[in-house]
Write a structure and sequence with these properties.
Layout lengths: L1 E5 L4 H12 L3 E6 L6 H11 L4 E4 L5 H11 L3 E4 L6 H6 L1 H21 L4 E7 L22 H19 L4 E7 L1 E3 L18 H9 L6 E4 L11 E2 L1 E3 H17 L2 E7 L5 E2 H12 L5 E4 L8 E2 L4 H7 L7 H14 L10
Parallel strand pairs: 1-2, 1-4, 2-3, 4-5, 5-6, 6-11, 7-10, 8-13, 9-14
Antiparallel strand pairs: 9-12
The structure holds nicotinamide-adenine-dinucleotide and uridine-diphosphate-N-acetylglucosamine.
The site of uridine-diphosphate-N-acetylglucosamine (UD1) has 21 residues, from helix 6, helix 7 and strand 8.
């Protein structure tokens, strides 16, 4: 199968491209490299033994997309491209609406123009807002607390409307929980620019000594130890979920919405303890006030994904930490510190 992967040089995209290439798909990546490095693409080729085709372009660039569709005629699209930093989205909402929503609308228009109507979209557990009931099922109420989350909600709605208008569309809305870890080779992984916003890369940079200590945002939540609980999922499990979603779309029409999580939550302090144990490094931390907009706990009911896609997460917390640590140790400065 020929698959177009938007944002394929990024964290989740690069891991998904490896799995697609290993499953013998032909992959074309479109990425503007606004939050990724061409090194990631070289490493993907090194791991897979095959190089994906790559076009440096923005998904809002209609002419560039039309060229890609004309030349490659992809059968399906996995759409990762977008901006994802919550804090930045509060400061620059228009750039989030522009990138994420206009980008997706332009992509879908070009797909329709070329008769390509199979789409897997990167949504997020952020669409559940502050969940009332745990674990979270796909029919839980949705809501957003920031512009980033709202772009995901709006895009989901837009894609539902598109599917109603033309039932030939086959669409998977995948709501990711918290992807962490890295490929077991240690060659590709998460490479946040500047100081990480998310817990796992932050812990990992403290363990290796790049940052002095972790700030734990609040220890007075109604959770096992007072710190926030999340459903961390190995990025390779998440990547494989996209292959199962593509298979599902190839088999049957319709629009399907699935949680991709493990169903198990861990607190911040449980994550610190696990990472210290696996890495053998201390992770000093200080308790700080709650982070604005944070929720106490969030974890998936992943049973619908198992039923609909035949997919479930296989890798546990130990493997997430081992693989994340291998990536951190081999790439202290991320892709920036490397020539190959
Ligand atoms: P990432 O930033 O590593 O990857 C996104 C890629 O898209 C980058 O390579 C970037 O250069 C590219 N890109 C951004 N805007 C573009 C544009 N307009 N045109 C072309 N390329 C563009 O992020 P990620 O963590 O791999 O996330 C991938 C997707 O999954 C995003 O849509 C994100 O919102 C979603 N998601 C991520 C998480 C997470 O925790 N990482 C959780 C839920 C959902
Ligand atoms: C963040 C995003 C969310 C996105 C999700 C996907 C925010 C507010 N939300 O959610 O939109 O869908 O990533 O990965 O950014 N923590 C600390 N210290 C830190 C960093 C985090 O204690 O330095 C805590 C947080 O309070 C939280 C947990 O660790 O309890 C996980 O945080 P994080 O990795 O940022 O993920 P989310 O908050 O789930």
């Amino acid at each position: 199968m020929k698959i177009l992967v938007t944002g394929g040089a990024g964290f989740i995209g690069s891991h998904t491209v490896v799995e697609l290439l290993q499953a013998s798909a032909e992959v074309i990546i479109v990425d503007n490299l606004s939050n990724s490095s061409p090194q990631a693409l070289q490493r993907v080729a090194e791991i897979s033994g095959k190089a994906p085709q790559f076009v440096k372009a923005d998904v809002r660039d209609r002419a560039a997309l039309q060229e890609i569709f004309k030349e490659h005629q992809p059968e399906a699209v996995v759409h990762f491209a977008g901006l994802k930093a919550v804090g930045e989205s509060v400061e620059q909402p228009l750039s989030y609406y522009q990138n994420n929503i206009t980008g997706t609308a332009t992509l879908c228009e070009v797909m329709a123009e070329f008769g390509c109507k199979q789409l897997v979209f990167s949504s997020s557990a952020t669409v559940y807002g502050d969940p009332e009931i745990l674990p979270i099922t796909e029919n839980a109420p949705t809501g957003a607390t920031n512009p980033y989350g709202r772009t995901k909600l709006f895009i989901e709605e837009m894609l539902r409307d598109l599917h109603v208008s033309d039932p030939e569309w086959r669409i998977a809305l995948l709501r990711y929980f918290n992807p962490i870890g890295a490929h077991s080779s240690g060659r590709i992984g998460e490479d946040p620019a500047g100081i990480p916003n998310n817990l796992f890369p932050f812990i990992s940079q403290v363990a290796i000594g790049k940052l002095p200590h972790l700030s734990v945002f609040g220890n007075d939540y109604a959770t096992v130890d007072g710190t926030g609980v999340r459903d961390y999922i190995h990025v390779v499990d998440l990547a494989i979920g996209h292959l199962r979603a593509l298979e599902r779309l190839a088999k049957a029409p319709g629009l399907v919405t699935c949680n991709l999580g493990t169903g198990r939550g861990y607190s911040v302090l449980e994550m610190v303890a696990a990472f210290s144990r696996i890495s053998g490094c201390e992770v000093p931390y200080q308790i700080k006030p709650r982070r604005a907009g944070d929720i106490a706990a969030c974890y998936a009911d992943p049973s619908f994904a198992k039923q609909e896609l035949g997919w479930q997460a296989e890798r546990g917390l130990e493997e997430m930490c081992q693989d994340g640590w291998r990536w951190q140790q081999g790439n202290r400065q991320g892709y920036r510190g490397s020539n190959g």
